Amino acid sequence: MRLFLSIPMPEEVREVLEDVQIDLPAGRPADPDQFHLTLVFLDEQTEEAAQAIHEAMQGLRAEAVEVRLTGLELFGGRAPRVLHAGVADPEPLRALQSKVLARLRAAGVAPGRRRFRPHVTIARFGHLRRDEVTLLERFLTENGHFEAPPFTARAVKLVHSVLRTGGGARHETLADYPLG
Using one digit for the tens of pLDDT, what is the confidence trace for 13-60? Predict the structure, then answer.
């Protein structure tokens, strides 16, 4: 099972993110129903490991976190792969992620080491032509001031990600763990 732990986006934030996608000059927009902020990508896990993750997360004691998405950026450098919205103050999310990682490690689950850059994916790109890169750069200049309404993250979700042929994934929530 391909799993991750995430914070879901409330409706008003999903709507603002979806508005950004309307004028996107290239790429494959992410499914607005699947907008989320990944706390920990767990990759492929056995059913036993998934159960251990669930049990560990049930013991999570953490406060709700204020989140404000702001700014649009690209991952991938000269060959952009992902357009995402950043987070205004990532420190509370980093603290939450540290608590989650501690619970997982105590349960014997060791996610791969990745630098945590909280973000929400808006679109993905395959190989972009030079003119598409130029249009994308113009889009970022015009929309780089992006800001979504702040919200309080009151839960972490355990999500099963099922890859589909032809690209993309379907996300199925397996469990919710309340914050606060």
Answer: 999 999 999 999 999 999 999 999 999 999 999 999 999 999 999 999
Task: For residue 40, list its beta bridge partners.
Answer: 5
Q: Mutual orientation of helices 47-58 and 91-106 as an angle, nearest 10°?
A: 120
What CA–CA distance (Å, rounded) separates 133 from 138?
Answer: 9
Strand order across the 155-163 sheet: 36-44, 2-8, 155-163, 169-178
CA distance 176 to 5: 10
Q: How far is CA 49 from CA 2, 96, 112, 163, in A?
A: 11, 21, 14, 20
CA distances from 76 to 80, 131, 138 (A): 4, 17, 17
One-letter amino acid identity for 111? Answer: P
β-bridge mates for residue 84, sequence order: 73, 121
Q: Which tokens belong to 76?
A: 């991938």
Which region holds residue 108: left if phi is over 0, alpha if psi is between -120 and 50, else beta? Answer: left
